[in-house]
Amino acid sequence: MTFAHEHLLWFLLIIPALMGLKLWVDAHGSQAERLFTAARLRPALVIGRSLWRSWFIYALYAFAMACIIVAVAQPRWGEERLEVPDKGRNVFIAIDTSRSMLARDVPPDRLTRARLAAHDLVIELAGERVGLLAFAGRAYLQAPLTTDHDAIIESLLAFDHTIIEWGGSNIGDLLDVTLRAIKNLPKSNYALVIFSDGGDADANLVPYIQRLTTAGVIVVTVGVGTEGGTLIPNPEIDGDYIRDEAGNVVRSRLESGVLQQLASATGGRFLKLGAQPLNRNSILPVLNRLTEQQSANRQTSRPIERFAWPLGLGIILLMLAWIISSLPRPSARPVMLALAVAAFAPSPSAHAFNIRETLASIFKPGGPTPADASEALQSRDFARARNLYEKLLKQKGYGEAARQELLYGLAATEHELTNYDGSVKNFSEVLHTQDQSLRARAHRGIGHTLYDQGARGLQQQPKITIQRWTDALRHLDAALELDPDNKELRENRDHVAKMLDELRKIMKQMEEQQGNKGQKGQKGQKGQQGQKGEGQEGEEGDEEGAGKQGSDPNGEGEKKEQEGKGEKKEADDGIGGKDAKELPEGRLQAAGGDKEGEKDGQQGKQGQKPGDGGDEKKQTAKGTLPTDQRNPRTGYTPGEAEGIIRQYMDEITAPPTNRYHTPPVNKKDW
Fold first, then answer.
1. Are 129 and 145 in contact (CB under 8 A)?
2. pTM of the model
3. Shortest CA distance to 450 belongs to which of 385, 404, 496?
4. Distance between CA 438 and CA 444 in Å, rounded?
5. How many beta carbons lie within 10 A of that of residue 265, not counting itself?
6. How many C-beta neighbours within 10 Å does residue 86 have?
7. Chain-centre distance of CA 294, in angstroms?
8. Are 167 and 662 in contact (CB under 8 A)?
9. Residue 599 and residue 588 in contact, taking contact as beta carbons nearer than 8 Å
């Protein structure tokens, strides 16, 4: 149990202080009574004074005060799940992290000042959907649009000049990444707030500006820096400054030309970051032109307030103390007390005539019951049913058999909500029960869940579907052993077995077709010389090229082979393709290609026989995936994935002096 205001619980120390005060007052009162009355006359003179009655009333008041203090502290226990609509206006925040942002003409430096201003802006945009981008020589989406501003601020605090390796300020790439980020989002309008020290007006941005206008993106640019500018400290060498290729020290200024160009062309506005923080009013005219967009609801949880219980108990204690203190004589006390209890007790039902049923109706515990959860499940209110089952399982007082029934109900509810992992987990716990009928139903539930889970992933992962259907068949067989007379269960088991057999046959046929296809590709081009390779499959292109190099006197086969390889690399998405030219020097091997492949090509040029280039095919035959087969889950081929991993390892292990070895096209890497 937790409290919203724990510090208020210190007021409970007043209760023992009041008890001590009561003892002191009673002691002095008894002393005065003994002084003013004789012992033999005291029973006749002092009438109606009862020590136990006084203490009982005082205790009721004290406990009532304690209950009210606890209620004000707001006790909480348990959680309830809520679906909060994720809606708001769409605002992207982009920050320039190039090395020119390390200039200190804006204290403490441009990058820190931009981060603080963006932090203030995120706080001002409460309730809006905010996305985060970082850009230098390239741009990256750091956080998609979300109303979870804590996550945005956490990502923002990690921004520094090393977050992006490529130098310069490539605003064109930033606009392209922004357009790709909103491409698959519902149609709406967006605001893009750019913090940068700018650059010269660029005619190459015109196509991006046209696409931004078509997509409904309004750009707000925030210039960071001063027109006079200052030198850029070198973060890698203390006391030194950034220098150009000629060795001259670079002086960076606020170049607002491109920033004003973007703002005016998209209907936004240009702001200069000064000493005042950037608040909501600064971009309010732009926000007023945006429309709210609502996406799927997000689930959250909040603690359940329980202050009503101590508050109600405190009110009841106060009323009892008042009733007892107003009793006229001792003989009426039991009658009045019984009337007070009867007044606050709920009226018994028509069939409750005996005292046991009456007491049961008075002290009946509140909260959900298993019948309520079962009724919600039968009425197909699955969200409410899951909530009720989870609350019931948290309560104590249920026997083992009753808890197993609750777990079975929760598992069935999770299956209807397509939470198959949770359903299998709860059904598996039910298997420990001693009830044979319930255990049979649990086996059947696991079988149905695994079958549905496999059917959902059939197209993407057929091999995993085979595994899940095999497990489903095993559980259905176990259920039949416990309940052999269940005709419906046997029909379900036969259906799963039939579907499993058909899927295995289809997979076997596909594997045989792929095998025949690979053998055909290996044999199809051996011995052919000087011919154009049309419709070639697999990896026989290297062998064909090797054969051509040994017999073509004009070298046309070699030229065409090289052109074909060049087109293949050009189509590769950044792993050995056209983007490999932009990778840092010394890392083209990791991203671009295989040295063994280059050696094979050289051997082919020297006249190697066509049959000598089958090492890569042998690896494929042993079980290695072909390099052009993409993983449906990641979207990368094995070669691309290996290249990305090698490039990442090079980046994190490279010394700091090599980080900015790849300057942009304009030769400015700051």
1. yes
2. 0.42
3. 496
4. 10
5. 16
6. 16
7. 18
8. yes
9. no
